[in-house]
User: Fold these one by one.
Assistant:
Number 1:
Amino acid sequence: MIEEQDPQPDDQESSDGYRPPVETMKYGQIDRELREVFGVSVMYLLVPIFLLVTGSISVVASRWFLRVLPGAAAVFVAYWILLRAFAPMYDASPEMANRYSLLISRIAGGIMSTSHSRLAALYDRREELKDLEHVN
């Protein structure tokens, strides 16, 4: 017989189970997590791309389908480009990429399952370890 379970509360998942505390992480671990978060935060650019294309097309087209289809196509093309471009963008300027991720995180209230406070702590710890590396 199947027993009913109590519903779980609707709060965000705790990152304690699968992610180490920021204070114990090494530079490589922090850089890897920041790179992954930047990859997701770059995808937030798809929203203004869709709105820009849809808005510019709506001036010309009158039917809903004709307005949304080019915007959806632009999103798929931009997604493909951004998916391949985020790693070189991060490598070219990690500080700028991390500041962008912090901005998006602040605006959106976090990026996926990474809260803004964890992202800020990761960025601060990265800077701290980077300074220690340059001193030695």
Number 2:
Amino acid sequence: MSKSTLNALAALIVLATTVIPSHAGDLKLLLDETTSVIPTDVTYRLSPDGLEVKGWVAKRTAHAGRMQGHVEIRLLDETGLVLAHKDTSMVHYSPTRSNPQKASFSTLVPEVPSGTATIEVAHRVGKTSAER
């Protein structure tokens, strides 16, 4: 197998092993750890206002460079179909600072579709869906 195939396979294994059962219902929390900036210490809470998701994103390894992008929250059904999508900004860090190691995020998904089984949290580089 080629090195890129092995890396992709390893990333899928890491992603598959980061499914964390929820304590606040039957939702699962899936953290995408396939990028250089990964979600950590993520929690969620169902409230009358919707689904509150918060946590941190941190560099996988300490290295120089800016931390750009946004956090993507996706609500999935049992089959992995995306039912809802919300992008949120990172806060409590300076995006122009030359070497931030982590940043926090917090967002509210006002409507949780019926059939939601999994909350997927990922760091993405580039514009949010609202900016496109």
Number 3:
Amino acid sequence: MTDRSPRDRSRPTEDVDTDPDAEAVAVGDLRVAVDVEATVDGDRLAVRSVDGRIDVSADSLRTLGRLGSLREAVPDRIGQSIDRVPIGVHVGDVEVGRVDPDVPAGPLARALGVAPVRLDLGGVTAAVLRGRW
């Protein structure tokens, strides 16, 4: 992805103390490199930028439910542009949802209040069958 930022004199990402494996992802006029692991009520949560998208991975569907709105959890400037970034949502190694620019969430996601995430029913079912609910 190309940084279209008008900030010619901004620090390059190489000067920022980040994980060398984190790849920068364009979020509006920003370039964001994320490699964070945390725990939410004892469950693992990881957020990483890779291959031009952001991946959110949790140990269980319950952990994802505790997050609330991704837009509310990030700084305002990023939150205003978050709909322009592909986001994969995983439970373990199974993709359970996805946010893609210009692809609206389905009726089930809107009814459950998880829009703009598009749910992958096969992935959600696999996570539940593996006991990761």
